[in-house]
Amino acid sequence: MGDSTESVLRVEGLKAHYDSTDGFLDRLLGRSRTVRAVDGVDFELREGETLGIVGESGCGKTTLARSALRLIEPTAGSVYHRGEDLTALSSPDLRDHRRDLQYVFQDPLSSLNPRLTAGDVVGEPLEVHGLATGAERDERVRELLETVGLKRSHANRYPHEFSGGQRQRLGIARALAVDPEVIVCDEPVSALDASVQAQILNLLSELQAEFGLSYVFIAHDLRVIEHVADRVAVMYLGEFVERGPTETVFEPPYHPYTEALLSAIPEPDPQWERDGVRLDGTVPSPIDPPSGCRFHTRCPRIVPDADYDLSSEVWRGVTDLTLRARETDDAASVTATRADPTETPWETFDGSVREEFGLPGTLPDADAEGALAEAIATLHDGRVEAAAALLDSAFTSPCERHHPAEYELDTGHGIACLRYDDGFDEESETLADGPE
């Protein structure tokens, strides 16, 4: 880990959007579908440090890394390497920076040409960048193989003749061949068993110390990130929700999403007991991301509306009911009870809805209870769309209305959550809700 604070790589406002419109007719009718895979991300990587980027699958981590190195073209934003904007460079000029910016892929087998020997895989970058040819190239290749823990004789083997861990070592040797400053490690150990993971992580640490490398390390396993990273950025649906020094991010206070990820880390202790944070549902589609805070559709600590006297747990249940009603046009599908609601006694249907969504028999707030009872009655009549509209108008969290800024809790530690807004009242769990 270097002591210098100089930024070797800086990303500002990076966006990567894709057009997923289906077919000619959709385009003709103007039915555009834009996937917002990365949606305005900033970060910097300092000399000799490891920046960990963590989040569930589908959050945009790999797209962020690849667009930052222009392996795919970003939609907007800038990426600076040593002060030079890579997004403004032509292909020939960008090629000069490729030597300093390398990539280790998640699946080493799919990223290695099966027709090339290990020696050719590692030696190809040397030839492409004019660094070595002939006998000098061959000797350099053998040195690199030894550096990553392989044998010199392995130069004559093909990728399929290596184990998973050996193939990952081969991918690392290829990245090292051009003497880079930065290596992006895209989940380099996720497909390996635990013992091999440790070997690869230790290898990366040793190489960083020996060559002064800077890493962007992508993972969904926080145990790995805690082991390797100096700083951590937690990503959800194309945005960073928290970032800071590793030891700070792993200790409270933290973003509710970070809290859920941390609670999912298993402990190797059969007597271990801890109440984990359960996240219902999956990551929403980046084609139509939720309004406000993108995590509000799953957040266990959603902020209730100040107009009602309801806890965040009750508000979570009402929000889940609202989301279910929005997503279906079949009243029977709103609850686990698939019988026709109109043929089910009102009391039975009302109880089933409340039980499934963790709602009490009567909400403690009279106005909220009246709105909920009316919505459930509308569902009982089979009018799902009308019920969803009633729930939408009566129960809208500030988290749905406002996109949270990044609030700085400490030096270098920022969290994008309304619970850290100056207007949030911890005791009542409400936000002084101003204009959007």
From TrEMBL:
Keywords associated with the record: ATP-binding, Nucleotide-binding, Transport
A GO molecular function held by the record: ATP binding
Pfam family, one: oligo_HPY
Gene3D superfamilies on file: P-loop containing nucleotide triphosphate hydrolases (3.40.50.300)
Domain of life the protein comes from: Archaea
Stored SMART domains: AAA
CDD domains according to UniProt: ABC_NikE_OppD_transporters (cd03257)
Gene Ontology annotations of biological process type: peptide transport; transmembrane transport
Occurrences of domain ABC transporter (ranges): 9-262
Key word Glycoprotein present: no
Family to which this protein belongs: Belongs to the ABC transporter superfamily.
Protein name, entry field: Peptide/nickel transport system ATP-binding protein
Source organism of the structure: Halorubrum cibi
